[in-house]
Design brief:
It is built from five helices and eight strands. The protein starts with a helix and ends in an 11-residue tail after the last strand. It has a five-stranded mixed β-sheet, with helices on both faces. The chain has a three-stranded antiparallel β-sheet with strand order 7-6-8, with no helix packed on it. Helix 1 packs parallel to helix 3.
């Protein structure tokens, strides 16, 4: 049977109560984040890649019910992005990766660049900033990112393409089991245990537990 108008009114009243409690809890969460930020030194990392992976993985492990998994991930990624911005403002540098950047970081300030090299170059003067770059662009050319930036995350998109996230000097490095490196001048991905002595490491990362939805 369909809900009666009285039932719908009761359900909407309950939604209002839940929304108020969610808002209160979010305010409390950001107050805690703000307090954490005040304890950090000027050179201490605000963006911590391995912590971000742990937070999202933990939420996914406990998730069930009607909420789509993609919605849950997006909500928590936006919360993480906003929390980092509260502690210290930063920008996201993109080429043609705006959709992925918004999914991962929410309404953080974004700067568009014509090439991936331009986006990486901007990190030299902005050590707290992040660049979201497609693997299709040859940003990994030998010497292109050091010492201004390091790779710390990598994601597969729903169309099968991959993007890599790079951070400036003050963005935390990942200790994840995967490595991005240059091997004989070519872009290469491997396990940390498979690194060769001649490899140039671009960064490490933890495998992502989710895929980024993008327009097909």
């Amino acid at each position: 049977m369909s809900p009666t108008p009285e039932d719908l009114s009761s359900l909407r009243d309950r939604l209002d109560i839940v929304d108020r409690e969610l808002h209160r809890l979010l305010q409390e969460r950001f107050a805690i984040v703000e307090a954490i930020g005040r304890t950090k030194g000027a050179d201490e990392a605000i963006i911590r890649p391995d912590r971000e992976v742990d937070v999202v993985t933990n939420r996914l492990a406990l998730h069930d019910g009607a909420m789509p998994q993609e919605t849950l991930i997006h909500i928590w990624r936006v919360l993480i992005g906003g929390a980092c911005a509260v502690q210290r403002p930063y920008r996201i540098h993109v080429t043609d990766t705006l959709d992925a950047a918004r999914y991962l970081y929410g309404p953080v300030d974004v700067v568009r660049w014509p090439t991936a090299s331009d986006a990486i170059a901007a990190l030299a003067d902005k050590p707290d900033d992040v660049a979201v770059l497609p693997d299709a662009s040859a940003w990994w050319v030998d010497g292109a990112i050091a010492p201004a930036a390091h790779a710390f995350a990598r994601f597969t998109q729903s169309d099968g393409t991959k993007i890599t996230i790079l951070g400036g000097a003050r963005v935390g490095a990942s200790t994840g089991p995967k490595v991005l490196c240059l091997r004989h001048g070519a872009f290469y991905e491997c396990d940390a245990s498979d690194l060769a002595g001649t490899d140039t490491v671009l960064g490490r990362y933890a495998p992502s537990p989710f895929t980024i939805p993008v327009a097909q």
